[in-house]
Every structure is written in structure tokens, then in C-alpha cells.
Amino acid sequence: MTSATITTPQKETPFLFEGLTWREFKVVEQLLDRPGYRLSFLDGVLEIQKMSGEPHETVKERIGALFRIVPPCSRV
């Protein structure tokens, strides 16, 4: 029997930008309106965090596989 190794993805360091106004934040928010980025804004500090999509995709694929395995009549 082989043992499986589960690796934990490394968390990326967020980018911080200080001294922004709300209006500047809204402009940046529109420019980065795409999947894979999370923006936070508090007291003039903008934090941009890149979200890793790989673990999400793996879970999504496994759940999809379970739905293909379970017969439709047994679904609630």
C-alpha cells in the first residue's frame, strides 16, 4: 500500500498600499475585477491578496465525481 502525501499550499503574502482614498480604492477595484484576487480596504489601506485556485478546483472536481457516481434516484 502506498501512502499519499497531502501538501498544504503556501499562503501568498498580500500587497499593501497605504494612504489611498475611497475613490482610488474603487478605481483599483474595477481594474482588478477578475477571479483570483481578493481586495480589502480599511482606514486608507488597500490589501490585495492573490487567491490560489488549485485547492478549490481539486475539491470541485471531486464533488463533481461523486455526483457522477451516485445514481440520480438516490439523490434527495
Q: What global shape is seen?
A: elongated
Q: What does the radius of gyration come to?
A: 19 Å
- Runs in which pLDDT lies below 50 for 5 or more consecutive residues are none
Cα separation of the termini? 35 Å
Q: If you average the pLDDT, what whole number results? A: 77
Q: Major sheet: order of its strands?
A: 1-3-2
Number of domains: 1
What's the total helix number? 2
Task: Give the helix proportion (percent range).
Answer: 25-40%
Element pattern in H and E: EHEEH
Beta content comes to 15-25%
Q: Count of DSSP E strands?
A: 3
Structural class: alpha+beta
Task: Write a concise keyword list for the protein shown above.
alpha+beta; 76 residues; 2 helices
Walk me through the structure.
This protein is an alpha+beta fold and 76 residues long. Helices cover 34% and strands 20% of the residues. The protein has helices at residues 22-31, 54-69; strands at residues 15-17, 37-42, 45-50. Strands 1-3-2 form a 3-stranded antiparallel sheet, covered by helices on one side. A hairpin with a 2-residue loop joins strand 2 and strand 3 (45-50). The protein is elongated, with a radius of gyration of 19 Å. The mean pLDDT is 77.
Helix and strand topology:
Blueprint: E1 15-17, H1 22-31, E2 37-42, E3 45-50, H2 54-69
Antiparallel strand pairs: 1-3, 2-3
Give a brief outline of the structure:
34% of the residues lie in helices and 20% in strands. With 76 residues, the chain is an alpha+beta fold.
